[in-house]
Task: structure prediction
Amino acid sequence: MNKKILIIGGVAGGATAAARARRSDESAEITILERGNYISFANCGLPYYISREIKSRSNLILQTPESFYSRYKIQVRLHTEAIQINRYEKYVLAKTETGEEKVFYDKLILSQGANPILPDVPGVSKENAFTLRDIDDMDKIHNFIDEKSPKTAVVVGGGFIGLEMAEALVERGLNVTLVEKYKHLMPIADPEFGELIRRTFEEKGVKVVTADSAVGYEANDKQLVLESGNKISADMILFSIGVRPELEIAKSAGLEIGKTGGVIVNEYMESSDPNVFVVGDMAEITHRITGAKTRIPLAGPANRQGRIAGANVCGEKKKYSGSIGSSVVKIFHKVFAMTGLTEKQAKEFSASSVTVHPNHHAGYYPHAKQLSLKLTFSNETGKVLGAQAFGEEGVEKRVDVIATAILGGLHIEDLEELDLCYAPPFSSANDPVNMAAFVSSNHRAGFSPTVSVEEFLTNYQKDNSLYVLDVRNPNEFASGNFTTAVNIPLPDLRTRLSEIPKDKEIYVHCQVGFRGHLAARILLQSGFQKVFNISGGYKSIELGLNKV
Result:
């Protein structure tokens, strides 16, 4: 008899799994149950329809049941909700528009995703409070703006969806406030990148509130009440504070659930039942660098997991090695991207981080844009652990290079040697990735020891008598400086060495790092024993000053 493959849920994981299963087994009976109205849509594109950057709603609908059947001979059943799994008789009890029925399977793939978390905020009603997960949510937001003409909006949550939706609402002409309960936007990133993101939003007129959260809503005055007691005008509210995996039927079926709240799967995407596979936001996977169990609710990993599960239900043995969480977000005319571990995540791995602020292409070629690139690596082995970058141009390109290096097990010395594309309109002879590797290697070799801004500010909080040497020129120093820094311009340093104490640690910096490196080399060769160049210079220091 033909193998019966049943998939619960479509979109990234489920639809991909179904298509891959068909390519592996032409004779299989493949069915997708989807409780919603759409089988395959571009969920990552939803904010850009709301912003009107994507004009046509139909562009977001990638497949219909009819087109899916025509191409793959896969039966898609919309408005059909799986409510129970009987693992022993191998059927799913489904609720349809005409009643309940049993749908039998030989192999089952769960791809139900995760639901946005809607906090219990007293006074908030469904009329003007929204989350964003699917086409229906998108339509509600779009129609509310068109029909109700709101003037003010509050986005609660400063992660990926929150940032994208704050921008989208600005583009629709609303006065937007962005509220994040942590100390900085994009909490999974290091603080200086949260600060760069905050400044970009504020440049566009968005009010940013951090270290605060919503606790109530006064409907009569249309004001959101914050824990601090402050109130914000809010004709509409968009909650984006995280997602919770859909686990009801997985739990009721007795599948093992991990500590992260996802279904435990092995490298083949099999759950504790070898006939039940789980992909996407529901699955507890392995972080490829740390080996720790995690959940990474991103479309890219969900697609790859779906492809692997689709092959394996047909008898193949493809392995999923885990994810490193590579991601990118557009913030108006700028971009933030990250991969692997941040500095704060890598501390337990005896890691260091360096920051460089080079131009995205040759400075002498028109329209060069400065980007900020932070590289994290193991002090013991030199292995590349992660990167974060922010800027207008060339950001995701550099992060993708480093993501590839991580999966290849490369070290910072390997990054030094990378032959990357160069022509003045695209890069410099030494690409920013090479530059970050040079700084990292100099640190590991002791040739030019560095400290990150995070390390420097933490040390300064413990001891504010640290000797901080600013080697910028006097005009740069006058335009902004660290409160206790001593200014000795680099050209004068060799003749003023007697002014610098030899019994203290010297923390030296310039504007972005290179002159600080030159100063450190002068000092180290002049009898100073403990000299550290503050990575990223004053540009990075100034981004982290809210720590002091």
Q: What stands out?
A: Residues 450-547 form a domain with the Oxidized Rhodanese; domain 1 fold (CATH 3.40.250.10).
